Structures are given as structure tokens and as C-alpha cells.
Recover the amino acids of this structure.
């Protein structure tokens, strides 16, 4: 516990400040990057072989053992390297450095006893999935689902309080195009980490609507959504009004919030973070992802803090434009 | 069989023709919408000028030349906006922006003016409007680029030339105008 003050929370209003302690993990045994790559390639080959086995049964003799070895190898490698412990430590260090409240999210597990359909979800994560399912589920335009591993409550340099949810994925870019092997910090690598993030903050003005601005699949302007005056903006965002308390269709309220400067910033956020957002009354929820391409823990740790801080600053950058 | 193939081919060609023609029409409308967006923000700047001038004037009674220059620049900018010519507008707006920048720089160098007059509010509004103008300019230019790309690429180039769709001009400052806008403001009272 780091104090007794309250913090802003978009889901319940306020929460008492709390920073969960995380113990520093040991070094672990890190396997060379190429072994991970080989295991990933083996897993892909196994999946193809299992598909082929539907038409040519002997392929299963390769597919099933290969799948078991690759999955077992990847899980074993993660355990040896203490990947989960290092990730939690990374999250905790970020919160500690910035003085933010923080808690880890329990992974979503099947219950050991009872109904097989019962999947308990951490209550903090459940609130988010219920409030902004559009930003969390995978769908065309957002292939990677958002399942939180940690949550933060902090403030920007300009003292705008925010809530931030985070998830880390391992990235193997061996077969990917060159652009995926690079990150926004000038780094390049075949292995790296992808950080899926969602942030919420108070606009301090009730827009009177709930609007979804979600990524258009393939950056093509869909037909059945609200259009702004910008071709570039419409190509990137599928705009819909889900709830209109004013009762005039909500388009006027939405277009008031989407000033030219707001649209311009959102275009940049989409290009940088694949950002998409939900405007819910006076609260903005914005989701996006970014990556650090390096398999060295020190490099990832050094860039991770900057990545999250930059994302938070960028996400609130259009606040004063949405008049 | 040949008749059927020809009919299907004709329907396909007609379908593509209609799609491309409608796409071009839509792109022209989007350019007009983008332009309207710029005009809204420019109008907002024009409307802010008299208030700002009055606010500063009350604290700076001995000098009228600078205010006359700003109000003249505003009148020219409003005339140009009524004419809807992007080039003239870019020129007059650059002149207005430059005059305003000079005034703001002078105000910033003299905190007593900010303290005595209600300048800070106008200054903030003006800065926000400048941001909105820059953003609407970007959005408009994006729409122009979309229209122009459709006009110069196949099959849009054939349909555009048959129906006289014209390329639109982006709203950009000439190098000279850019220099005027971004140069260090000089003010001599």
C-alpha cells in the first residue's frame, strides 16, 4: 500500500489508491532466440500437417507429435525463462517509477471443479469487458483480442488522471515483413513484445452520446457508418452511435466532439497505434497497441516505460480539441 | 452463348462505369465538405479578431497603427473568403495570421497588457483556432488528394475526362507566404 488517497476510475468513480507488490523474479534460464523461432515454425508445420491428415492420414504421425513438442517446448521455455514473472515485474516497476496505482489481473482460468462452462474472470477485468466489449473482442479490423494482465491508475504530465489496462504478447517476426521487425524506437529484431493497451480518461464535458470509432477492416471506408468531412478519417474509422441521450440521432454531438484537430490527431493515433475509441458520455476509452522488437530484457524494460507513457500522453492529446 | 457473354460483359462495364462515376462525384462532394470545414474555422478566426483588438486596444490606447493593419488584413481575408479562391485566400489568411502573430508576440513581451486586458482568453481561443485551421487544411488536402488520385488513375481518368471532372487545388501556402507566416514577427509601435 502506498497511501490512502482516492484515485479516479472510469468504471466505479473512485477507488482507494493501492499498488500491488510484485517480487523480483530470478534471472531464469533463457533459451536462444533461434530455438523459439524453430519451435514456432514447428508448430506451424504441425498445424498444416494436422489439416493435411484429414485427407491423408499418415500426416498425423508427424503433425500430432510435432504439435506436442512445439507447444511443450514453448511453454517449457517460458517457464525456464520466468517470462510471466519478468512481465509482472516490468509492470510493477512502471507503476512504482511513475507513482501509479497498480494491480495484476488474475488470468482467466477454467474452474477446477464444477461446471465446465464456468470461466471466472477477475472482477476488475470483467467490468472493462462489460463496459467496452467493442475494444476488447477480436473482429475484422482488430484481430488481436484484449485480455488484461495488469491495470494502472495514474496521471499524465499535464495531470490528467487516467486508467490504463495492459496486456503483453510475445512476438516472433521471423516470417513477418520488414516493417513488423522494426519498432517505434528505432529497434529491430526477430523477437519482441507486443503491448496491447486500453486507456480511459474524463473529457470533463458530457457529450450526451455513446459512440464507437472502431478500426475499418483493410483501411477501406465502409458504407453503413457515419461520415465526417475527411476521407482519410473515414477510411480508418467505422463510426457508429450506440446510445443517444439527446435524442436527435447524436450526429451533431458527435461531430462537435470530432473537430478537425481531433480527427487529425486520431488519424495519427491510428497510424501509430492502430487506435480505436469509444466515447461514452464524458469518458473516452481508447485502445491501441505498440511493440518493442528486442529479445534482451534490459532493452525491453528501458523502452517499455517510454512506450506506455507516450501512449498515455498521445491518447489524451486531443482532449482540449474535443470542445 | 456469345450473346449472353456479351450481355454480361456489357453489364459489368456499365456497373464499373457507374461505380467509378459515383466515386468521382462523391470525391468532389468530399472536397467541397472539406473546404466548408476550412471556411468555418477561418470565419471563427475572423470573428475573434475584433474582440482581441478591442481587448488589447483598451490597454494600449496610444497606438492605433497596428490595430488598423490587423483590421485591414481581416477585411481582405473576409473579401477573399467571399470570392472562394483558394490561392487568394491562402495569401490573405497568411497576411492576417502574420499580423495577429505580431500582436500576440508584442502582448507576450508586455505582461502588463495581459494583466490589464482580457487578452489571455482571446489568445487561447486564437491558438486553438490556429490548430483547427491547420487540421482542417490537412483534412481538406487529404480529400483533394483522394479526388485527384481518382482523376489521374485508370479507369477514373477516362470517365473524369468524359464528364469534365477537374482536379482540385490543395489549400497550401506558397513558399513566400510560408516565410511570412513563420518568420520571427517584427513589431514596431
Amino acid at each position: 500500500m502506498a497511501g490512502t488517497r482516492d484515485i479516479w476510475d472510469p468504471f466505479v468513480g473512485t477507488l482507494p489508491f493501492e499498488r500491488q507488490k510484485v517480487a523480483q523474479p530470478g534471472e531464469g534460464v533463457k533459451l536462444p532466440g533461434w530455438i523459439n523461432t524453430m519451435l514456432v515454425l514447428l508448430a506451424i508445420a504441425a498445424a498444416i500437417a494436422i489439416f493435411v491428415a484429414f485427407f491423408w492420414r499418415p500426416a498425423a504421425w508427424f503433425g500430432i507429435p510435432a504439435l506436442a513438442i512445439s507447444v511443450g517446448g514453448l511453454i517449457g521455455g517460458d517457464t525456464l525463462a520466468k517470462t510471466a514473472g519478468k512481465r509482472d515485474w516490468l509492470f510493477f516497476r512502471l507503476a512504482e517509477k511513475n507513482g501509479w496505482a497498480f494491480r495484476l489481473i488474475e488470468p482467466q482460468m477454467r474452474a477446477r471443479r464444477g461446471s465446465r462452462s464456468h470461466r471466472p474472470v477477475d472482477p476488475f477485468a470483467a467490468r472493462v469487458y462489460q463496459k467496452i466489449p467493442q475494444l476488447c473482442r477480436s473482429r475484422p479490423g482488430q484481430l488481436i483480442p484484449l485480455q488484461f494482465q495488469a491495470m494502472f491508475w495514474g496521471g499524465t504530465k499535464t495531470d490528467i488522471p487516467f486508467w490504463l489496462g495492459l496486456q503483453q504478447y510475445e512476438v516472433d517476426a521471423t516470417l513477418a515483413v520488414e516493417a513488423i521487425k522494426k519498432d517505434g524506437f528505432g529497434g529491430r529484431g526477430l523477437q519482441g513484445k507486443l503491448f496491447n493497451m486500453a486507456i480511459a480518461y474524463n473529457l470533463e464535458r458530457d457529450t450526451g452520446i455513446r459512440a464507437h470509432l472502431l478500426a475499418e477492416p483493410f483501411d477501406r471506408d465502409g458504407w453503413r457508418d457515419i461520415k465526417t468531412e475527411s476521407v482519410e478519417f473515414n477510411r480508418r474509422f467505422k463510426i457508429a452511435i450506440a446510445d443517444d441521450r439527446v435524442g436527435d440521432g447524436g450526429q451533431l454531438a458527435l461531430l462537435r466532439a470530432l473537430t478537425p484537430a481531433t480527427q487529425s490527431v486520431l488519424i495519427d493515433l491510428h497510424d501509430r497505434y492502430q487506435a480505436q475509441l469509444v466515447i461514452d458520455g464524458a469518458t473516452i476509452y481508447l485502445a491501441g497497441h505498440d511493440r518493442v522488437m528486442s529479445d534482451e530484457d534490459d532493452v525491453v524494460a528501458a523502452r517499455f516505460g517510454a512506450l506506455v507513457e507516450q501512449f498515455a500522453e498521445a491518447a489524451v492529446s486531443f482532449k482540449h480539441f474535443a470542445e | 452463348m456469345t450473346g449472353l457473354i456479351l450481355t454480361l460483359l456489357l453489364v459489368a462495364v456499365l456497373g464499373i462505369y457507374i461505380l467509378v462515376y459515383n466515386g468521382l462525384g462523391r470525391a468532389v462532394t468530399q472536397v467541397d465538405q472539406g473546404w466548408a470545414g476550412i471556411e468555418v474555422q477561418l470565419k471563427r478566426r475572423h470573428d475573434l479578431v475584433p474582440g482581441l483588438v478591442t481587448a488589447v486596444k483598451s490597454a494600449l490606447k496610444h497606438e492605433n497603427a497596428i490595430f488598423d493593419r490587423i483590421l485591414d488584413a481581416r477585411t481582405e481575408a473576409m473579401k477573399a473568403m467571399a470570392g472562394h479562391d483558394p490561392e487568394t485566400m491562402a495569401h490573405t489568411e497568411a497576411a492576417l495570421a502574420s499580423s495577429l502573430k505580431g500582436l500576440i508576440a508584442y502582448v507576450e513581451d508586455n505582461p502588463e497588457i495581459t494583466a490589464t486586458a482580457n487578452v489571455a482568453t482571446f489568445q487561447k481561443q486564437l491558438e486553438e483556432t490556429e490548430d483547427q485551421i491547420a487540421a482542417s487544411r490537412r483534412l481538406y488536402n487529404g480529400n483533394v488528394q483522394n479526388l485527384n488520385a481518382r482523376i489521374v488513375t485508370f479507369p477514373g481518368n477516362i470517365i473524369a475526362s468524359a464528364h469534365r471532372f477537374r482536379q482540385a487545388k490543395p489549400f497550401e501556402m506558397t513558399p513566400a507566404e510560408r516565410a511570412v507566416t513563420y518568420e520571427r514577427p517584427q513589431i514596431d509601435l
